[in-house]
Write a structure and sequence with these properties.
By secondary structure, this protein is mainly α. The protein has 14 helices and no strands.
Length: about 290
């Protein structure tokens, strides 16, 4: 081996501009992680401290893992009723979303280029993405009161209505890019009806996007506070966990220890679901973002 071949080639120096950009990038990521982690840190340590410890130093670590706050929350009157209401609202809302949103999106995706009615319907639904909830809040309350929808079933119906906006938008793009029209044409030649084609061929292909929509909406429905507050405030028996947690606040005091313990209890189920299902979210959003 010659000395020329044995000579090591040093990599070119990294430009100063690139190093500054990398430093700023990691700095922004670090600050962002700290901003996200700080509220979670306060929630965990406050839930594990006694009231006396919180009074002495709100930001300090607990001297021991005190579980009395969790026990007191669970033993509170009607806790499992509120948990059952939240679970029922979430599950039924997701079932309706899994049935209505894919089928409606399929009809729009396959017909909006042929019919002005379907095109208008699609645009009308997508425009809803740009309307803030605060704009429709008062009309929604009046509508619910007029049609006797200020109850759990009314809340489920409105959850479905709000999920239609982004659900249809994502599903239509996904169907156009990931579901070949040739499969449906072959099924029609074999004698399949439109419903049979959708149920047997199209719907199974929509699994990644369906799971994505269900997980995202499960997070929003489970954690929703404003809509239950508007529709379920007449009867205490129909409260959700979020309204139950809001009840820890009185006119003059707020029991942080019990409230934060309740926050952790309500966060755990949906966090577990999200951790084990996040790959479907990434897969569904990635496939739906690329339109063929």
């Amino acid at each position: 081996m010659t000395s020329t071949n044995a000579r090591k080639v040093n990599p070119p120096p990294v430009p100063l501009q690139t190093r500054v950009f990398q430093f700023l990038k990691y700095l922004v990521l670090t600050v962002g992680c700290m901003i996200i982690a700080a509220p979670l840190y306060l929630t965990v340590i406050t839930a594990l401290k006694t009231r006396q410890e919180s009074t002495e130093n709100f930001f300090s670590l607990p001297t021991s893992f005190y579980l009395g706050n969790f026990q007191e929350v669970i033993n509170k009157q009607n806790y499992f009723t509120y948990l059952g209401n939240t679970l029922f609202i979430t599950v039924v809302s997701l079932i309706l979303m899994a049935i209505v949103i894919p089928s409606l999106s399929y009809a729009l995706a396959r017909n909006m280029r042929k019919s002005k009615f379907y095109r208008f319907s699609y645009i009308y639904l997508v425009i809803g993405l740009f309307v803030p909830f605060q704009v429709v809040m008062v009309p929604l309350v009046k509508l619910a009161s007029k049609f006797n929808l200020s109850n759990i079933w009314g809340l489920i119906l409105f959850n479905l209505m709000f999920a239609l906006r982004d659900g249809v938008f994502l599903f239509v793009a996904y169907i156009d890019s990931a579901v070949p029209l040739e499969l449906e044409e072959s099924a029609h030649i074999d004698g399949c009806s439109v419903f049979r084609t959708y149920a047997s061929i199209v719907f199974p292909l929509l699994k990644p996007m369906t799971v994505t929509i269900l997980i995202l909406n499960a997070l929003s429905v489970w954690n929703d506070f404003m809509l239950p507050l508007l529709l379920l405030n007449k009867s205490k028996s129909s409260w959700t966990l979020q309204l139950f947690q809001y009840n820890f606040k009185t006119a003059y005091t707020f029991d942080y220890n019990l409230a934060f313990a309740s926050f952790l209890l309500s966060m755990l189920p949906i966090m577990i679901v999200y951790i084990f299902s996040q790959k479907y979210i990434i897969q569904g959003l990635t496939n739906g973002a690329v339109k063929g």
